[in-house]
Amino acid sequence: MKITDVKTFIVDGGRMNWVIVKIYTDAGIYGVGDATVERREMAVAATVDHIREFLLGKDPFQTEMLSETANRDSYWRTGVINRSALAGIESALLDIKGKALGVPVYELLGGRHRDRIKCYANYWAYAPQSGDDVARFLERPMELGFKAVKWDPFFAAYQQMDRAERNASMGQIAGARKAGGADLDLLVEGHGRFDLPTARILGTAMAEYEPLFFEEPMPPDSIDAYAELRTLIPVPIAGGERYTEKFRFLDVIRRRALDWLQPDACHCGGLFEMKMIAAMGEAAHLAFAPHNPMGPVGNAMTMQLAASTSNFAILETMMVDVPWRAEVVTEEVALINGEMTIPNKPGLGIEFHEEAALRHPFSMKAPQHFKRRTYATDLKPWYSVQ
User: Fold this and answer.
1) Can you point out the beta strands (E) in 96-206?
2) Residue 134: which residues within 8 A CB-CB, separation 6 or more?
């Protein structure tokens, strides 16, 4: 079997544009991967196109060799653009191999540890202003069966918050704990907002509500700052979505800078790299909970990782998505009592529809993290609820 073509499809996914890599073969088998880089879609698509010439005519079963050689030959071995292009390519190669062998990708990654995994809901709290707002928004994820939720309660803050703003944010967390009860896991998103003293104040203040973790409270640039913060606040710290290779995570682990590791399967160079990061975390007894807010192909990649990784703890899941998601891919995923089932079909377990993807082309997206967000009103669950 030989690779005959490599294409990218940039698909409007509502919150972002999905960058889907499709690799074709002379056996009629294709594979897909997700190389999405939020608001840098054209750059990553161009990088995939640069790698295309190297891949043409190669055996897709040589997955690691192709990925490692493409990484070497890029010369720029780090950075989200190159690493995301490689992630999409490697996933597509694994999808081809799984289909050709008639096995799910998780069998190529070491076999299955589980057939479903606990999820936390994201994209359920639409610009809440108070604890009462959060309590109202919580009704939907709890109706769907989620046992854990994540949201950003910090409005448009950056670096610091005054006391009134901090009190309003803590009011949201208090409202979530009251409405959700003692058994609902609360995950607090920071989006890399704060300086160290502000993160310290907030991390200390939220401790009474017992969040599962405080995600990316500071910008990701300084591992030393995270290592210091971890000694100063009583809540676990999560991060890593903006680190793109195992060497960066090795530094994080050595310096004991995080409690929860959150690499992204679409950004870290591939699922084999993710397995190595997970293994390093397991050796240090750290929890592994990958960042997973991208599109359907990225979710399929992460589900295969969840099945095959022993210390995979909890899966980020977008509670709702654009209505045309079901046009672009065929996926069979169920949510059962807050746990998502892992597909056992060959490859990634999904089918990609080019014609539908072309009906939803690239759309410019404005950054939303540090302003009052806008939300679509036609979103709905993309999985079945059992």
Assistant:
1) 116-122, 148-151, 185-189
2) 125, 128, 151, 153, 172, 175, 176, 179
Among 176, 33, 119, residue whose Cα is nearest residue 383:
119
Q: Alpha-carbon distance 289 to 344, whole Å?
A: 21
* Neighbour count for residue 336 (Cβ, 10 Å): 13
Residue with structure tokens 């993309």? 382
Asked if 191 is an active-site residue, the reply is yes
Average pLDDT of every residue of the chain: 96
Q: Is the pLDDT confidence value at 373 over 80?
A: no
Q: Where are the beta strands (DSSP E) in the chain?
A: 3-12, 17-25, 30-34, 116-122, 148-151, 185-189, 213-215, 237-239, 260-261, 287-288, 315-318, 329-331, 334-336, 339-341, 350-352, 384-385
The percent of residues above 90 in pLDDT, for the chain, comes to 96
Catalytic option among 191, 285, 353, 360: 191
Say how many C-beta atoms besides its own lie within 10 A of residue 147's C-beta. 18
Q: Which of 383, 119, 89 is nearest to 265 (CA)?
A: 89
pLDDT digits (tens, 9 = 90+) for 36-49: 999 999 999 999 99
Q: What is the per-residue DSSP string for 98-121?
A: HHHHTSBHHHHTT--S-SEEEEEE
Structure token digits, residue 284: 């240090």
Q: How many helices (H) and strands (E) does the chain have?
A: 13, 16
Q: What is the average per-residue pLDDT within 282-293?
A: 97
pLDDT band at 370; cut points 50, 70, 90: confident
Catalytic annotation on 291? yes
What are the structural domains, with CATH classification, of the chain? Answer: 107-347 (3.20.20.120)
Structure tokens that stand for 348 in this block: 């990634």
How many angstroms separate the CA atoms of 281 and 28, rounded? 39
Q: Quick check: pTM over 0.85?
A: yes
Rounded to a whole number, what is the distance in angstroms from the first to the last CA of the chain? Answer: 40
Residue 280 near residue 251, CB atoms below 8 Å: no
The stretch 81-98 carries a mean pLDDT of 98
Catalytic residue among 291, 353, 360, 369: 291
Torsion sign, CA atoms 152, 42, 46, 350? positive
Cα distance between residue 354 and residue 90, in whole Å: 19
CA distance 126 to 141: 13
